[in-house]
Write a structure and sequence with these properties.
Low-confidence stretches: none
Largest sheet: 7 strands, mixed
CATH class: Alpha Beta
InterPro entries: Glyco_trans_2-like (IPR001173), Glycosyltransferase_2 (IPR050256), Nucleotide-diphossugar_trans (IPR029044)
Protein name: Dolichol-phosphate mannosyltransferase
Order of helices and strands: EHEHEHEHEHEHHEH
Strand order of the largest sheet: 3-2-1-4-6-5-7
GO molecular function, one term: undecaprenyl-phosphate 4-deoxy-4-formamido-L-arabinose transferase activity
CATH architecture: Alpha-Beta Complex
Number of domains: 1
Keywords: Cell membrane, Glycosyltransferase, Lipopolysaccharide biosynthesis, Membrane, Transferase, Transmembrane, Transmembrane helix
């Protein structure tokens, strides 16, 4: 298998079918792949609609959290279950373009030092307050962590599964993957990707539920960066 695609969803009942249809139309014939939806404790009809889709799509796997645990937890659940060496992640709201998965995969295959290829939404299709808060957060984070990544919040990423499973795990870690990968000795690159306006459902994120947690997490990652653990060990002949 070439690729596992992990899609965390929370109350996205109207997005799961069109997103799966689009993913399959883009990836069929190009990859040997699987699609893993992680239902992060949805309380709408998401679980039932995923069950119906699972019956009709052999590539689809569905994992479900008993209660909402957050995006990082959902991504880690999918990563642990994935069967392929490379794992692509995609937001469940339909704003990421599945066509860009191939672009990220080609970048990864061209450089064997890369552990992470992340999308860069150069033309954001979000509200002005969301764009502004992300711009401020990215600027501050890049200045303090030096991760050289213009858009860590993009849900479209491609990670080397085995390497990513070695990283420290904590809530909201998905926003700090570039810094964590660099700390562990892996390579990171950003690739421009398409971004689309949300057509169905409502956003689960806003300034109020990201600001304070983001500050605490940033301080924690700064602490981790000062304590790398990468000894150069070799076995004697």
């Amino acid at each position: 298998m070439d690729l596992s695609l992990v899609i965390p969803v929370f109350n996205e009942q109207d997005n799961v079918q069109p997103l799966l249809d689009e993913v399959c139309s883009v990836l069929d014939g190009r990859f040997d792949y699987e699609v893993i939806f992680v239902d992060d404790g949805s309380v709408d009809a998401t679980a039932g609609r995923l069950a119906a889709l699972r019956a009709a799509c052999p590539r689809l796997r569905v994992l479900r959290h008993a209660r909402n645990a957050g995006q990082s937890a959902a991504l880690m659940t999918g990563l642990l279950a994935a069967r392929a060496p490379w794992v692509a992640t995609l937001d469940g709201d339909g704003q990421n373009d599945p066509s860009d998965i191939s672009v990220l995969y080609e970048a990864a295959q061209a450089d064997d030092t890369l552990w992470l290829v992340t999308g860069w939404r150069q033309q954001r299709r979000d509200s002005w307050i969301k764009r502004l808060s992300s711009r401020v957060a990215n600027t501050v984070r890049a200045a303090l962590l030096g991760d050289a990544t213009p858009d860590t919040g993009c849900g479209l990423k491609l990670v080397r599964r085995e390497a990513c499973l070695q990283l420290p795990r904590f809530d909201h870690m998905h926003r700090f993957l570039p810094a964590l990968v660099l700390r562990a000795g892996g390579g990171v690159c950003s690739v421009p990707v398409n971004h689309r306006p949300r057509q169905r459902g409502v956003s689960k994120y806003g300034l109020h539920n990201r600001l304070w947690a983001g500050i605490v997490d940033l301080l924690g990652v700064m602490w981790l960066r000062r304590r790398p653990l990468r000894p150069d060990a070799r076995e004697d002949d």
